[in-house]
Amino acid sequence: xxxxxxEEDQVHESHPETKEHHEVKEHHEVKEHHxxxxxxxxxxxxxxxxxKIATAVLAVALIIMLALQFMDGSELTKEEAGVQVVQYVNxxxxxxxxxxxxxxxxxEGDLYNVKLTISGQEVNSYITKDGELFFPQGMKxxxxxxxxxxxxxxxxxxxxxxxxxDKPVVELFIMSHCPYGTQAEKGxxxxxxxxxxxxxxxxxxxxxxxxxxxxxxxxxxxxxIQEEQNAKxxxxxxxxxxxxxxxxxxxxxxxxxxxxESCVTKTDSQFQVTELxxxxxxxxxxxxxxxxxxxxxxxxxxxxxxxxxxxxxxQANSARSPAAYLATVCAAFNEAPEECTDSxxxxxxxxxxGFGYEVGAATAASCG
Length: 368
Hints:
The protein has helices spanning about 20-70, 80-95, 180-195, 215-230, 235-245, 245-255, 255-270, 275-280, 295-300, 320-330; strands at about 100-110, 110-120, 120-130, 135, 170-175, 200-205, 310, 315. By secondary structure, the protein is an alpha+beta fold. It folds into three domains: about 25-55; about 80-140, Roll (Nuclear Transport Factor 2, Chain: A); about 160-340, 3-Layer(aba) Sandwich (Glutaredoxin), CATH 3.40.30. About 40% of the residues lie in helices and about 10% in strands.
């Protein structure tokens, strides 16, 4: 606080003042006081009017700014809008408690209407075309809101909710250098080894990369090893998950590198992986290079990040320990094999995200 000091009036001895002089002086002081008071009120009025004008100007500027957001040419495509919504819902809202699956994206004025399926329930959401604002639910002003008695709360599916078959098809979508993808791989690999050919297990890749060219290169190698040297793939993957050392693992596992490189060249050409990486105008949202090797499956299942588990054609939820993955996969059998009940060697511990087999805390985080 600023402090002001009053200066004391100095009294100087002078000629005595007359009565008339005092009257004139008092009249002058009263008149000046009224003038000052009137000036104060006028100044206050100007301040109020200035504030109102400034507020109006800001309001108009805000309206113009919001309007320009849809005129700057940076609109998302319907495909990009769908991916962004699925990623946001799964990562920020559901956080592993359930999985959202993309059903459709329809343009509605200045918005995209994005329909999702979560735990078997359809959710009607909206996102602005610039991708900045997301509305998790559209409400019609002509309809009453549901009451607590008739509103079902979406919950994470239990293993019993997994689609069943005689031989479950298990697909895990990851990014090779996503720490949460590698965490999921370390959890599900013991299950794939235990159940063997009693399940149809395949590692697949999210159709965009978030960890640079090294991720694209590694995924091409892993795809080709799995396709052409499948008997060695699980061993190669287990080795790679130790420290991400591709060359060491190719040698240790005995991968036919000439055969692998021939496949890599062919696959790269077919899906234009290197070509698309060099053209940033094709990148998802301008940030993520495409990896279209499994794009068809990505779109069919509504994959929105790494990891995404799909069993018998439907997204499934599971914690990431080997024991949890085993329980989830075993729930997909019409008649579970003995490995599902006699599995003492399957760890209930969760491995840490990233490379290495250290035990870590459970997490539902993902890349994407």
